[in-house]
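It is worth pausing here to work through a concrete case rather than discussing structure prediction in the abstract. The textbook approach is simple: state the sequence, then state the predicted structure, then interpret. We follow exactly that order.
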Amino acid sequence: MIKDSRELARLLEDYTIPESDYFEIAARLRSLKHRKAEGFLGATLDKLIGWKGGIKRPSPNSLKVKLPGFDMGKPPADLYAAMDREEVSFAEVLLNYIDKSDYVKDSDVYKKAGLSKGAFSKIRNGHLPKRENVLRLALVLRLSVVETEILLHAAGYAFQPNNKFDRFICFFLEEHEHGRDYDYDLLNLWCYDITGVVLVGEK
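Step two, the predicted structure:
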């Protein structure tokens, strides 16, 4: 961490600036000079950007890249594997759960969750639905809590423990896991009465 202006000035003097980066760096230094840098730091900035005569091109000898004592090292080998790994899309996860369910057609699922044909088509094409609609789909599919977490994660979401709607959904997901079944229309009434939100998604 740079502690004071003298240390910053020393660092600036230790490094010569490559030609390709000079004008970008000089512009940043010029902005810093506008902040009324004084004393030793101000003198160093004057030297680097030629403040009195405006930004000037450095001499060829000063364009050599020299980074004394600086070693970036090598990143961990598994970093590249992690960066190259392709995540499974939300649509793939959802369609896999639909295929494993007792529903014969996709339309039976998205209609019961209150989604339109157009909204479901967008999901198929890579659109991420709102978090509440992901939870509605999970409830319709009677997923387990773990499966719902996977579905949420695929869309970039997570359960929100302080959210009443989340707690309602999670409660009945667990009920389904224990073999207790409920009429969906009844769940819809209970959900609105308790959370103020209906189990019918946005079209």
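Step three, interpretation. Confidence is low (pLDDT under 50) at residues 33-41, 49-58, 62-68. Residues 19-34 form the longest helix (16 residues).
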